[in-house]
């Protein structure tokens, strides 16, 4: 509609340049699973990435053609999109990507952000939640606070073997020196009530 509000960010580029930029960003995202860019670019690339994962879940000839036309290196990314990523997000109804604000990376102080695929090896919220649990255990706390319990639910809800994977990550941090006080403060195997908190974490409301 003429004169209507824009439904997307133009990114100070003409249409062809904007599309080329977004194609480049999502190609990098699906290759590395995490990229750092400006906040505006991350939000627009997120929209395209979500659509591409939806195409991967459909796994039809039409969806493959659409994805083929989007990526700059489709022959290396399509097997991943229609293989591991399709399986990873099979039970997730949406929200396949996450945008996290970070400190400005450029001299112009433009808002920066990390765009990542969730439930993957570079899931930052998963890593930060594991680090928080390891730190709280080291400090001798025997319960999860409300925010940590909510984050536990978010990072484990749709991840295959999520609770076990998070506990494994916490144990790695413990071995790395982040949780040395756990055994002395809580006793071997006691932790801070991790197993007893599983159900409560699952019931916590989503933000």
From TrEMBL:
It is found in: Mitochondrion. Signal peptide: none annotated. It holds the Pfam family Ribosomal_L17. GO terms for molecular function: structural constituent of ribosome. It comes from the Eukaryota. Residues 195-207 have a biased composition (Basic residues). GO terms for biological process: translation. InterPro entries: Ribosomal_bL17, Ribosomal_bL17_CS, Ribosomal_bL17_sf. Its main location: mitochondrion. Belongs to the bacterial ribosomal protein bL17 family. Component of the mitochondrial ribosome (mitoribosome), a dedicated translation machinery responsible for the synthesis of mitochondrial genome-encoded proteins, including at least some of the essential transmembrane subunits of the mitochondrial respiratory chain. The mitoribosomes are attached to the mitochondrial inner membrane and translation products are cotranslationally integrated into the membrane. HAMAP family: Ribosomal_bL17. This is Large ribosomal subunit protein bL17m. It comes from Aspergillus fijiensis CBS 313.89.
């Amino acid at each position: 509609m003429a004169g209507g509000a824009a439904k997307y960010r133009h990114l100070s580029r003409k249409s062809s340049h904007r599309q080329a930029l977004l194609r480049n960003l999502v190609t990098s995202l699906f290759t590395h699973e995490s990229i750092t860019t400006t906040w505006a670019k991350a939000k627009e690339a997120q929209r395209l990435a979500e659509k591409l994962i939806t195409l991967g879940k459909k796994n039809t000839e039409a969806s493959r053609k659409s994805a083929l036309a989007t990526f700059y290196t489709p022959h290396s990314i399509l097997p991943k999109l229609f293989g591991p990523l399709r399986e990873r997000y099979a039970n997730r109804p949406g929200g396949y990507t996450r945008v996290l604000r970070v400190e400005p990376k450029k001299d112009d102080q433009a808002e920066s952000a990390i765009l990542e695929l969730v439930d993957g090896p570079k899931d930052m919220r998963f890593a930060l939640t594991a680090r928080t649990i390891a730190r709280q255990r080291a400090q001798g706390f025997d319960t999860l606070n409300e925010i940590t319990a909510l984050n536990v639910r978010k990072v484990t809800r749709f991840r295959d073997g999520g609770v076990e994977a998070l506990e494994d990550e916490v144990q790695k941090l413990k071995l790395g020196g982040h949780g040395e006080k756990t055994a002395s403060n809580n006793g071997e195997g006691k932790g801070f009530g991790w197993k007893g908190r599983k159900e409560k974490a699952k019931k916590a409301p989503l933000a």
